[in-house]
Amino acid sequence: MTQLKLAASMSRLGTESAFVVLARAQALAAQGRDIINLGIGQPDFKTPEHIVEAGIKALRDGHHGYTPANGLPALRAAVAGDLHRRHGVDVNPDNVVLVPGGKPTMFFAVLMFGEPGAEIMYPNPGFPIYESVIKYSGATPVPIALEEKNGFAFSAEDVLSKITDKTRLIIINSPANPTGGVTPKVEIDNLVKGLLDHPHVALLSDEIYSNMLYGGREHVSLLQYPEIRDRLIMLDGWSKTYAMTGWRLGYAVWPESLVDHVTRLCINDHSCVNAATQFAGIAALNGPQDAVRDMVAQFDQRREVIVRELNALPGFRCADAAGAFYAFPNIEGTGMTAKEAQGKFLEQAGVATVAGTSFGAWGEGYLRFSYANSTENILEAARRIREILQ
Ligand code: PLP
Fold first, then answer.
1. Strands, E, within 199-276: which ranges?
2. pLDDT (tens digit per residue) in 76-95
3. Where are the domains of the chain?
4. What's the whole-model pTM score?
5. Which mutation among 172, 239, 328, 370 tests ligand 1's pocket best, with the greatest number of atoms within 8 A of CB?
6. Which overall architecture, per CATH, does domain 8-46+290-389 show?
7. 103 alpha carbon to ligand 1 midpoint, in Å?
8. Fewest CB atoms less than 10 Å from the CB: which of 29, 34, 91, 174?
């Protein structure tokens, strides 16, 4: 009989329950059930062909070895070029650090600042990994409550009022998972202005959905504020924009003073990103962008359909989804908790969604619907849910 003694930190590490829902949905589908998956946070499109070809070519050309830990110089230059095109900012490629996906940057940033006694602020409801890794680090997670009445945007005043001398890092995310909320420029302006009074606080801006804004909205990148560049970590990546979740490729722009620290974390953790994936990443950024535009246009059409359909369901109220590919309706009127609704819709209607509470305590009363699925399936999912509710 083994008697393994795990580190106490393991009991503080959370998870991402969208993967649990996905496993259950797949198990039901394997039993022959017809499941519509509106639970998963990944585009239902294929990676554009020219990107796939670049990855294959890299393998054929013999790129099978390690790359520099921070990433291929050509890819870091391509990232800087892309940021200049999209956000009009100048970024030194030496400040770009490539990692396997969006998640490693948040883990590394939190490991760098988190320890017992430190406070780290994060959006709630928000991407569940933030709270999970903050707790793992031993730091105290301080939620930034995101409310429906504010379009799920953070209020700069609220964030600034929670800063103490223990605050080390603030995490923000716009466009946001799970709410689809987009924080207006005025709040970002005010946050940056207020942060100037708190030079001990770093900022992690998760901009992984920066290409997915609707209704004429334009993305505001925190890179556009030179006054905080020396403490900004700006996270973005290929997963959502180029439908490349399985390739595992992401990056962050780091402040000069943190680049060596994060590079050491990369060396200790994964050495470098898979070489062929990095070549695919170059093709994605330097090649034609029409596949991205087409995908976002399709998301926009589905968004209108899903918001309309959800608002028509008894007990549902759905705010306009401004970005990403999620709708986050309030379901309190159904009389069910978020978890009950998630279970009932999956088991009885064959529709996978994710309970708002999977994204933090402030998500009670809400359900996340990903519209990374066809309009036909969205309409059918709404029909099945209506049938159950009646
Ligand atoms: N940040 C947010 C807000 C996300 O929603 C996700 C994925 O769902 C990620 C980061 C992580 O992306 P990746 O799959 O590239 O690690």
1. 202-206, 232-237, 250-253
2. 999 999 999 999 999 999 99
3. 8-46+290-389, 65-286
4. 0.97
5. 239
6. Alpha-Beta Complex (3.90)
7. 6
8. 34
